[in-house]
């Protein structure tokens, strides 16, 4: 036998081509799913399950209960109507009994059936006339050689074209039998008992082929806990490394310094701001670098809290740096903080990408020598030619809009500065604990005194005339407003008018009596700044714009917002846009015109209209879309989960985090012999990401 054809010794790294039941034809199909080794097959957790424990003959069926029936396809009928609607009827025979399965407007289901083939249907039957009927049942084709799955809970695996469920089940079952015993138990036996966890040898077969729902729940708990626990261990190890290896300047907020800073604030701080400042002051007083996430809803006053931290660093002779994702937002921060510094001796500078070369060179020299103490800017701050004299604090605003390495570059711009990240996108607690598990968190939930609520309306085209009349009346009272459209260029595919056309139609139609400005992302920085400044001054009464105004536009007199094609925006983005009109002492009014095409889109818009609480909306968005669309794991350098669900498993996440912190406190390096396997798992899964784990 040629050495190249020789079967390797059985191990978890055995290629899938050598697994029983795979065969040459299925190797490419499995690899298409990312399945290359025996271990990959073991940890291909089912995406769902079919509970067939209540499988019955047709004669034994009961109305209204979820039941399963196996039979042979006797007849298939697909009918259509003039309106384009379809009805698919499939007649199933089981001995002398018959059942008709029906699907409405799902003609694609026709491809799943062939006369004479065996199928399994799961649904709630109803007796109509002389025959049982199921509407929209779940379908599972059965191969002729496949045994009857009666009375079992069947796993449902991810598939690719050419691969059937029964084939995947057979391959996985064989892999579990042959390779499952090779898995090491990560947890010491006393730990398993203490935390009510099944050992892996018992959990693995039951996660794939559970005997009952209780066993499935116990098996899933074991694997979910382990996955979350390993992540939290990695974050705790990283945090410990930071504390042990880093040394930051001690910058206490003495009574004198605190009083000097507060004299610059022209208003009373909220309770949330006071608590956040207390948290930050305590962090910066220590010789360990602060690593804190400051999250707050739109308009909650994060900039003031950040300003306090920056001025605290400056008071001790250090530089403070703030980086924002857009020039608009950077300029907004510069304007806000510039007002606070009126009459102060603190020197600040704004560094952006579009600066004239001579002006930029002078500013870089002032930053390098320490003449400029407070530096604000965009990604221009992290260019190679930028160096700091004495950085004491780094602030990253809208941190999720920067890549990991961008943030890391700024963080390590000097010898261990304190580090504060901010976000106005409220993050669900479970996401915070996962993606920012090695950061302390301060949350601003209350809005500044006097801040008015925004009344939100969801409307169709039939309400346009009424809304524009209301809009015009408010403009006549002296208010200002936004009209937000989702696209710059005309798109026949999306059937959305271009912003230029919308600007022209409004200027010559509904808003012809008013001063209307236009701003979008394709304009130059100078052009955008000119329009924004004109809007702030009141020269423009209305601003027609894209989502470029999502962050960084603060015009207290703007109380009106019209959002066109609202179904094109995400929930978080809609909330950010609405936040532009809750900045002053007048109540806000937001009308969203939308034509949602899906149930998910409709639910998203309804949630937006019903609530102005960003944290509630974040949880809702999380439930509707999952974490991937909110914060990509790639952004954070973390591998995706195999089985854990951050929404469903929040309680287990809390437990895993607590247990991980306790373990690291007792054994910081996981050096004890009984923790060797846990240590290997942490390094295998998160070792490459650990060096970036502290940058959010």
Outline the low-pLDDT stretches.
Answer: 1-6, 400-407, 492-496, 628-636, 692-696
The residue fraction in helices comes out at 25-40%
Second CATH tier, the architecture of the domain at 454-611 = 3-Layer(aba) Sandwich
Query: How far is the first residue's CA from the last residue's CA?
Result: 53 Å
Count of helix runs: 23
Rg, Å, rounded:
30 Å
State which percent range the strand residues make up: 15-25%
What oligomeric assembly is this protein in?
single chain
Quick check: average pLDDT?
Answer: 84
Compact description:
With 696 residues, the chain is an alpha/beta fold. 37% of the residues lie in helices and 18% in strands. Among the domains are: 1-50 and 161-177, DNA polymerase, domain 1 (Orthogonal Bundle); 54-151, OB fold (Dihydrolipoamide Acetyltransferase, E2P); 255-286 and 301-423, P-loop containing nucleotide triphosphate hydrolases (Rossmann fold, 3-Layer(aba) Sandwich), CATH 3.40.50; 454-611, Rossmann fold, CATH 3.40.50.300.
């Amino acid at each position: 036998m040629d050495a190249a054809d020789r079967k390797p010794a059985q191990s978890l790294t055995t290629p899938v081509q050598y697994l029983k039941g795979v065969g040459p034809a299925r190797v490419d199909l499995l690899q298409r799913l990312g399945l290359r080794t025996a271990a990959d097959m073991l940890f291909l957790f089912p995406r769902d399950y079919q509970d067939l424990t209540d499988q019955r003959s047709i004669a034994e069926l009961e109305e209204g209960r979820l039941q399963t029936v196996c039979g042979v396809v006797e007849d298939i009928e697909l009918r259509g109507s003039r309106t384009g609607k379809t009805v698919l009827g499939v007649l199933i025979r089981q001995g002398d009994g018959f059942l008709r399965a029906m699907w409405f407007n799902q003609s694609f289901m026709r491809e799943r059936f062939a006369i004479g083939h065996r199928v399994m249907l799961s649904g709630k039957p109803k007796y109509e006339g002389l025959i049982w009927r199921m509407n929209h049942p779940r379908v599972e084709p059965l191969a002729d050689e496949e045994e009857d799955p009666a009375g079992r809970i069947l796993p449902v695996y991810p598939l690719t074209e050419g691969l059937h469920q029964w084939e995947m089940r057979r391959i996985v079952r064989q892999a579990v039998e042959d390779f499952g015993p090779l898995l090491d138990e990560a947890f010491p036996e006393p730990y398993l008992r203490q935390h009510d966890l099944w050992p892996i040898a018992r959990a693995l077969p039951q996660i794939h082929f559970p005997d009952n729902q209780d066993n499935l729940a116990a098996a899933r708990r074991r694997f979910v806990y382990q996955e979350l626990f390993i992540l939290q261990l990695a974050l705790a190890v990283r945090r410990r490394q930071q504390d042990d290896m880093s040394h930051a300047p001690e910058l206490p907020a003495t009574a004198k310094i605190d009083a000097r800073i507060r004299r610059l604030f022209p208003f009373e701080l909220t309770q949330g701001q006071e608590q956040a400042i207390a948290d930050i002051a305590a962090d910066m007083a220590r010789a360990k670098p602060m690593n804190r996430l400051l999250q707050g809803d739109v308009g909650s006053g994060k900039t003031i809290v950040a300003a306090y931290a920056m001025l605290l660093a400056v008071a001790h002779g250090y530089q403070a740096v703030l980086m924002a994702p857009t020039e608009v937002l950077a300029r907004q921060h510069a304007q806000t903080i510039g007002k606070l510094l009126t009459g102060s001796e603190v020197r600040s500078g704004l560094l952006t990408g579009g600066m004239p070369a001579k002006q930029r060179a002078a500013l870089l020299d002032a930053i390098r020598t320490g003449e400029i103490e407070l530096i604000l800017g965009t990604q221009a701050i992290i260019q190679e030619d930028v160096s700091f004299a004495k950085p004491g604090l780094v602030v990253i605003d809208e941190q999720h809009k920067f890549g990991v390495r961008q943030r890391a570059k700024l963080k390590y711009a000097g010898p261990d500065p304190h580090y504060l990240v901010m976000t106005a996108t409220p993050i669900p607690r479970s996401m915070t604990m996962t993606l920012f598990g090695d950061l302390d968190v301060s949350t601003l939930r209350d809005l500044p005194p006097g801040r008015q609520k925004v009344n939100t309306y969801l409307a169709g085209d039939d309400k346009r005339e009424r809304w524009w009349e209301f809009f015009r009346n408010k403009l006549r009272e002296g208010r200002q407003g936004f009209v937000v459209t989702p696209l710059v260029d005309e798109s026949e595919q999306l059937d959305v008018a271009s912003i230029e056309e919308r600007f022209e139609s409004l200027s010559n139609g509904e808003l012809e009596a008013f001063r209307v400005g236009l701003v979008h992302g394709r304009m130059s920085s100078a052009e955008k700044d000119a329009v924004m400044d004109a809007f702030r001054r009141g020269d423009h009464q209305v601003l027609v714009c894209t989502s470029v105004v999502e962050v960084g536009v603060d015009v207290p007199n703007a109380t009106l917002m019209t959002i066109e094609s609202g179904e094109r925006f995400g929930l978080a983005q809609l909330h950010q846009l609405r936040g532009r009109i809750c900045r002053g002492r007048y109540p806000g009014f937001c009308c969203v015109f939308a034509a949602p095409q899906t149930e998910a889109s409709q639910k998203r818009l309804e949630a937006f209209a019903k609530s102005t609480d960003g944290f509630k909306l974040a949880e809702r968005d999380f439930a509707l879309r999952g974490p991937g669309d909110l914060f990509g794991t790639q952004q954070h350098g973390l591998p995706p989960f195999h089985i854990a669900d951050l929404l469903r498993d929040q309680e287990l996440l809390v437990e895993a985090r607590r247990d991980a912190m306790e373990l690291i406190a007792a054994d910081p390096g996981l050096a004890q012999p009984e923790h060797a396997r846990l240590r290997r798992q942490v390094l295998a899964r998160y070792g490459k990401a650990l060096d970036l784990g502290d940058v959010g």
